[in-house]
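Hi there, hope your week has been kind to you so far. Do you reckon you could talk me through the fold, stretch by stretch? I've dropped the whole record in just underneath, so have a look:
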Amino acid sequence: QVQLVESGGGLVQPGGSLRLSCAASGSIFSINAMGWYRQGSGEQRELVAAITSGPITNYADSVKGRFTISRENAKNTVYLQMNSLKPEDTAVYYCNADAHVHYGLDTLRGDYWGQGTQVIVSS
């Protein structure tokens, strides 16, 4: 299985920056893609940004030009640099990994989630 541990959330003023990190560990064979999702209070979880092993990146329109996703393959870690934060960015941010894990002599593909980290943008 894969364990995802997020860090870097917190309280920041509008216009400020935060950097989220997510480290994957476990019986990982390979990670196809990693991403960040967020869920505001009373809202559905939505994709914020994703990155493949290419790497190819994809961003929600609401964060383009402000957020940057990157990954460090050797450490199985993905980052989300968030700049020019707005109150509407307030949410719990979840890390996601699409990964193959060792399964006996084979591998098994799965979708894994972190526990979430709170980001609050407020003055």
Notes: The chain is about 0% helix and 65% strand.
